[in-house]
Automatic annotation (TrEMBL):
It comes from Populus tomentosa (Chinese white poplar). Keywords: Amino-acid biosynthesis, Arginine biosynthesis, Lyase. Residues 411-466 form the Argininosuccinate lyase C-terminal domain. This is argininosuccinate lyase. Residues 8-302 form the Fumarate lyase N-terminal domain. Pathway: Amino-acid biosynthesis; L-arginine biosynthesis; L-arginine from L-ornithine and carbamoyl phosphate: step 3/3. InterPro entries: Arg_succ_lyase_C, Argininosuccinate_lyase, Fumarate_lyase_CS, Fumarate_lyase_N. Its EC number is 4.3.2.1.
Length: 493
């Protein structure tokens, strides 16, 4: 058996069981590129500080480059008895270049080394996820552009609520994803401080330059406190929290599309290329990718919970438990990227069933709220008729002006009253199995005399949807503005 790097103090070698149980090379080799990056920066700093010669540094850098080449060519031998990625690379470097390699671990511990590697890895991972988020946003915006003007029922409590434009609904997901990306970038900013040089926990008595390595590795600054530097795992708790939120958003999208693909809804059809069949039921075509998007959100949450639980009882500083921090992070990143990519692919391969959606729209009195708004607006017009007419809008809604002389002969209509009136209209429709637009003006006037002929400009989903005109609402002008915003922001051509 090869002597361990710490062999000096030991009389016995470790048992096979313990070696197998404690190794991390089977998963932390994922960090190899960042480990080499960190070691190169560290060696350069040691040389500049006179802790190793220029020629030692040069052979270390050359050796590390060769190791990277070998790893990427599949020629590198990863050894379990060398425990982890750090010791595998260092031991191989020693075999390759001899004495100079032994200087590389000057003023460094695996405790600061592993975190340096991990932070560099997470930084890259965040960029990968952010790119996948953008890719999905683009797919959703394109889907919205292809379905401009398509009205769908909007739901609350999964009951029909108000008509909305499909692009409006799709852009709601785009907004959520934008915040997801923002959370990741925030997390990256907070994460980007360099632990290297904190050594085991207390720093070092050797004259190193932590600012130099920090800068060389693209960190904002070295971490201020060496104990914090080797104990900090909140950077990955924050990262996996952000991933969990993204996963939940995707899960909700998945649920919505699975529902919409059902016979009962029938609002969308995935193409065969993103569907799977059944081994027993010949007729089946299932939206599995989005079901699995929903399902895999569970493991992303699980990864976060693993990490939180792992850390909750640990005193400062490093504890070997912390070796368990890597797999959940790797898994979370891989899973979220997969979820984002497959959601984008699904979005590119579905069609919305206009006819079916159209047929479904009359049900559920989606225009009822618009009708209540109609009554409030009517009363508002009455309230300002006469003296107010011809004045600029700002004037007649300005209280100080109205105190100064405008006489209000009507007091307007409380929304609660309008709600009650429309409720009565809906009640009548339900009992006669009619839509609101089927009621005659006489029917309506009998319920309330304020209804006029122009009420029919408010009824029916097409009319109703376009009455929504406040900032951010679902009317076509507002949605067109939103679409313009995203097309420009995401540089969609
Ligand atoms: N493989 C270890 C980990 O991932 C590296 C740090 C080991 N440090 C130690 N003192 N045993 O945590």
């Amino acid at each position: 058996k090869e002597n361990k790097l710490w062999g000096g103090r030991f009389e016995q070698t470790v048992t096979d069981k313990v070696e197998k149980f404690t190794e991390s090379i089977s998963f932390d080799k994922e960090l190899y590129k960042h480990d080499i990056m960190g070691s190169k920066a560290h060696a350069s700093m040691l040389a500049k500080q006179g802790l190793m010669s220029e020629s030692d540094k040069d052979s270390i850098l050359k050796g590390l480059d060769e190791i990277q080449r070998k790893i990427e060519a599949g020629e590198f031998e990863w050894r379990e008895d060398r425990e982890d990625v750090h010791m595998n690379i260092e031991a191989t470097l020693t075999e390759m270049i001899g004495e100079p390699a032994k200087k590389l671990h000057t003023a460094r511990s695996r405790n600061d080394q592993v975190l340096t590697d991990f932070k560099l890895w997470c930084r890259d991972a965040i960029d990968r996820i952010a790119a996948s988020i953008k890719n999905l946003q683009v797919a959703l915006v394109k889907l919205a552009l292809n379905n401009e003007g398509l009205i769908v029922p909007g739901y609350t409590h999964l009951q029909r609520a108000q008509p909305v434009l499909l692009p409006h609904l799709l852009l709601a997901y785009v907004e959520q994803l934008e915040r997801d990306a923002g959370r990741l970038l925030d997390c990256k900013l907070r994460m980007n401080f360099c632990p290297l040089g904190a050594c085991a926990l207390a720093g070092t008595g050797l004259p190193i330059d932590r600012f130099m390595t920090s800068e060389a590795l693209g960190f904002t600054a070295p971490m201020r406190n060496s104990i914090d530097a080797v104990s900090d795992r909140d950077f990955i708790m924050e990262f996996l929290s952000a991933n969990s939120i993204t996963a939940i958003h995707l899960s909700r999208l998945g649920e919505e599309w699975v529902l919409w693909a059902s016979e009962e809804f029938g609002f969308l059809t995935p193409s065969d290329s993103v569907s799977t069949g059944s081994s027993i039921m010949p007729q089946k075509k299932n939206p599995d990718p989005m079901e699995l998007v929903r399902g895999k959100s569970a493991r992303v949450i699980g990864d976060l919970v693993t990490l939180l639980t792992l850390c909750k009882g640990l005193p400062l500083a490093y504890n070997r438990d912390l070796q368990e921090d890597k797999e959940p992070v790797f898994d979370s990143v891989k899973t979220v990227v997969g979820m984002l990519e497959v959601s984008a692919e699904f979005a590119q391969n579905i069609t919305f069933n206009q006819e079916r959606i159209q047929k479904s729209l009359p049900a559920g009195h989606l225009d009822a709220t618009t009708l209540a708004d109609y009554l409030v607006n009517k009363a508002r017009e009455e309230m300002w008729r006469g003296e107010g007419e011809g004045l600029p809008r700002e004037k007649y809604v300005d209280n100080s002006y109205s105190r100064g002389g405008i006489r209000r002969d009507k007091s307007g209509l409380p929304f609660r009253t309008a709600h009650e009136i429309v409720g009565t209209c809906v009640h009548l429709c339900v009992s006669r199995n009619l839509r609101l637009e089927d009621l005659t003006l006489d029917d309506l006037k009998r319920i309330n005399p304020a209804f006029q002929q122009d009420v029919y400009e408010y009824l029916g989903v097409e009319n109703a949807v376009n009455k929504f005109c406040s900032y951010g609402s679902t009317g076509s002008a507002c949605v067109a503005n939103q679409l313009d915003y995203w097309v420009a922001k995401l540089e969609i051509s």
